Amino acid sequence: MNLPYQTEPRTWDVIVAGGGTAGAIAGIAAARAGVRVLVVEALGSLGGTGTNAWVTPLMRNVSGGQNLNRGLTDELKVRLHARGDGATDANGNDNWFNPEGLKMVLEQMLLEAGGEVLYHTHVVAPILSPQATSDKPQAVTALVLHNKGGLQAFRAGVLIDATGDADVVMRAGAPFHAGDEDGVHQAMSLRFTLAGVDTARLCAFLGRHGQPQASPDFLHFWMVWGRKSSLEPLFREAVAAGVLEERDGDYFQGFSVPGRPGEISFNCPRIRADLNDGSDPWHLSAAQTDGRAAIDRLTAFCRASLPGCETAYIGTVAMMVGVRETRRIVGEYTLTLEDILDCRRFPDSICRNHYPVDIHSVKGGARLLHERDGAAPYFAPDAYHDLPYRAPVPVGLRNVLVPGRAASSTFEAQSAIRVQQNCHTMGEAAGIAAAWAARDHGGEVRAVDIPALQTEMRRLGGNV
Ligand SMILES: Cc1cc2nc3c(=O)[nH]c(=O)nc-3n(C[C@H](O)[C@H](O)[C@H](O)COP(=O)(O)OP(=O)(O)OC[C@H]3O[C@@H](n4cnc5c(N)ncnc54)[C@H](O)[C@@H]3O)c2cc1C
User: Fold this and answer.
1) What is the CATH number of the domain that holds 348?
2) Which structural domain range is residue 338 located in?
3) Any ligand 1 atom below 6 A from CB of 185
4) Which terminus of the chain faces fewer neighbouring Cβ atoms within 10 Å, N or C?
């Protein structure tokens, strides 16, 4: 890189690029393992897609009646519940949370553990060690960052690339996958909330219209064209009246949010199909404008057609576009659809998953959507598959780990492992492993003792 930059005099054992769903947890886990940790985050709070893209609730990842993700995920839930920012519904589902509360909890946990955070800072590019040899892959010796201080190089023993887009790995020149076989990505969404909703009336209306709810505090309602939603006739009328566009019914889903009475969080609108690459700045920017226009239409629809929403107003438009999938590293192991369907176990497992393949396709009905049943072993209620430690280890780099949605997986497999609780667990494993690699192995992430890592994760309440 030819631009001049200053070198920060301090060094860290572990720098986490991106304080999102996986990265914040990785930072906490690494700091608790006793090393110097810095989390570098583009925005002004932790949690990434789970907070700043307003993705709530956590998707369930249950097998045989047990939540497969424990460890730090459990602690998050306990702390969220204690603040009134988490809740358990009548079915025992404890995955409901308030994104604003999660920002607080993550930040407190990181700082309490002795970790540091640098907000409003973008990771620009890695600085690499001299060329790799056949027995020694290249190391990232520092990250060039950009913030109000200009360009600065920050040095660390191990780098965790938790940008979700594998920004560090890509700029290091290491290989990655992106999109499906045609390079097309999953749909993006711009999530928003409606506040000022009379949830008791909305609950009663949904009950009368084919979507009975257990309680006005835990609403979940939806409409997807052709999926037999009881709300489809209302959407048809709204499209005919010009209130909605046809594509506004491609995916519509609303959820209650604990700690925010009278507010509904929407897992929509879906962004225009041709704007599907969340690693393309022009797509991302256009997604904001496209999404905001759709939010205006959906708000008008809710006010006009959903009793209880007549005087509702836009509470939040997520500051991050919701990006489901962009780049995925080529790791030491690439998880496949077959691994999922066959419930494959791996000796170096760091995470267990039973969330299904869930592709929000921009290609229409020809693609897998919610594939929740079939003859494969995976569809047994007590089934799960493992995710190996090798999936977050990028080929060609010796001191980098990539937990989260950019871990090495095929397009289909990524759509299953990407949910937040799995990102937490991957982050926890990566944080501990990074700390040990920095402290004991000169940064070499392949030298980490995997049985010891699994034992440590279990000691911390993990389910591996
Ligand atoms: C619309 C939508 C709905 C979803 N629904 C659900 C759901 O209901 N439940 C569920 O469990 N999962 C859901 N998911 C999946 C899940 O939320 C994500 O896959 C997961 O949160 C991704 O975590 P991550 O850590 O990989 O990335 P992120 O959480 O996105 O974290 C990446 C972080 O890195 C930062 N960053 C990026 N680039 C840089 C850079 N160059 N420099 C500095 N910082 C950078 C970002 O600001 C962000 O904080 C959904 C996803 C989307 C998009």
Assistant:
1) 3.50.50.60
2) 6-181+327-459
3) no
4) N
* Candidate of 279, 420, 421 to mutate for ligand 1, largest count of ligand atoms within 8 Å of Cβ: 420
For residue range 445-459, what is the model confidence (pLDDT) as tens digits? 999 999 999 999 999
In this structure, the number of other CB atoms found within 10 A of the CB of residue 124 comes to 19
The pLDDT tens digits of the residues spanning 77-94 come to 999 999 999 999 999 999
Three-state DSSP class for 387?
strand
Q: By C-alpha distance, which of 162, 187, 188, 197 is closest to 25?
A: 162
Torsion, Cα of 414, 417, 418, 421 (10° steps): -170
Q: How many CA atoms lie within 13 A of 234 on its CB side?
A: 20
Using CA atoms, how far apart are residues 184 and 170, in angstroms rounded to an integer?
18
Say whether both 198 and 247 belong to one domain. yes
State the pairing for strand pair 150-161/140-147. antiparallel
Kindly calculate the radius of gyration of the chain based on its CA atoms and give it in whole angstroms. 22
260 shares a domain with 156: no
Task: Judge if 199 and 239 occupy the same domain.
Answer: yes
Question: How far is Cα 325 from Cα 283, in angstroms, rounded to an integer?
Answer: 13
Phi, psi (deg, nearest 5) at residue 250: -65, -30
